[in-house]
Design goal:
Strand content: 5-15%
Order of helices and strands: EHEHEHEHEHEEEHEHHHHHH
Shape: globular
């Protein structure tokens, strides 16, 4: 999988990426590959991460402070945990030029929009976004330029957002190979609760249950892991800080979906107890069809590694 060739001219004059983990470093690599920015600037609160970014040479500049990073910036993308969005916005707010666009990559949008709006001046454009892509790995070395290729990036502008700013953010993600959809923040959070957040919560829980099961040793859990449990462990290996913040900041939608899931799980338990084979077969048939549909539209592959190779 490869990205398109470099653009004849940059989409962004001065781009700033704050928070250089998997997503932030992948953005920088894609920007570098396609020449999407005149100048790409990186900043991370960790001195060791900043040093590593400099070694990797995935940014034109590595700033020492948030103020230095955003000075004169045209587009700022916050790639910090959802719970840190408010503090990040507060740190950069006094140093933003009028007309700058501030975006993010958080998987919760309602809370992020509130956090950014509370701290950023009215002279800048707030256009939140969420690239629905990732792996279980984190850090500046984990990123790769094709992470967003043929994945979806959801843009969730507030009411009354500047159309030019929204178009600029959409074009930026499209240039990195993403498909772009626009929707309201509240609807986004409900959609992601069922497609991402609750599945992660279930994965964390089942892996924790296995680890706590007294009749089965931890070595047996690791040694005899079948495909299903291995898949859960991959999901459950995701960044703990990021996911803690996701659940705390999208709790209403997550609790709503969890309630429905609990009801369905009890019905499934009843079907197993009363030998209702037809009920089980119908469910498994419907869910199998969903898996096939995901593969057919190119959002996954049938490969054992879930199509997440870095080729």
């Amino acid at each position: 999988m490869v990205l398109d060739p470099p653009l004849p001219r940059p989409l962004v004059g001065r781009l700033v990426v704050i928070g250089i983990g998997l997503i932030g470093s992948s953005i920088l690599r894609a920007v570098q590959t396609r020449a999407l920015a005149g100048t790409a600037v990186a900043y991370d609160a960790s001195e060791s991460v900043r040093a590593r970014v400099a070694e990797l040479r995935i940014a034109d500049e590595v700033a020492a402070t948030p103020a230095e990073a955003v000075a004169g910036a045209d587009l700022i993308i916050l790639c910090v945990p959802v719970g840190a969005m408010g503090a990040a916005a507060q740190a950069i707010a006094p140093h933003l030029k009028p007309g700058a666009i501030v975006s993010d990559v958080g998987s919760v949008k309602g809370a992020v929009l509130k956090a950014l709006s509370a701290h950023l001046p009215e002279s800048v454009h707030i256009v939140p976004a969420h690239p629905v892509a990732g792996t279980e790995y984190s850090g500046p070395d984990a990123g790769f330029a094709t992470l967003f290729k043929n994945r979806w990036s959801i843009v969730t502008p507030p009411d009354g957002a500047d159309e030019g700013a929204v178009a600029a953010v959409a074009a930026f993600w499209q240039a990195m190979g993403a498909n772009v959809e626009t929707m309201g923040a509240e609807h986004h959070d409900l959609v992601l609760a069922i497609t991402s957040h609750v599945p992660h919560l279930i994965a964390y829980n089942i892996v924790g249950t296995a680890a706590d099961l007294e009749q089965v040793t931890q070595s047996e859990v690791i040694k005899y892991s079948a495909g299903g449990f291995r898949d859960f462990t991959r999901i459950a290996a995701s960044d703990p800080t990021m996911w803690r913040d996701v659940f705390l900041n999208n709790r209403e939608a997550v609790i709503e979906v969890l309630g429905r899931f609990t009801e369905d799980l009890i019905a499934l338990q009843r079907a197993i107890r009363w030998n209702e084979g037809d009920t089980l077969f119908d469910l498994f048939t419907r869910t199998r069809a969903i898996r096939r549909s995901i593969i057919e539209i190119g959002q996954e592959t049938a490969a054992p590694n879930f199509g997440r190779g870095q080729e």
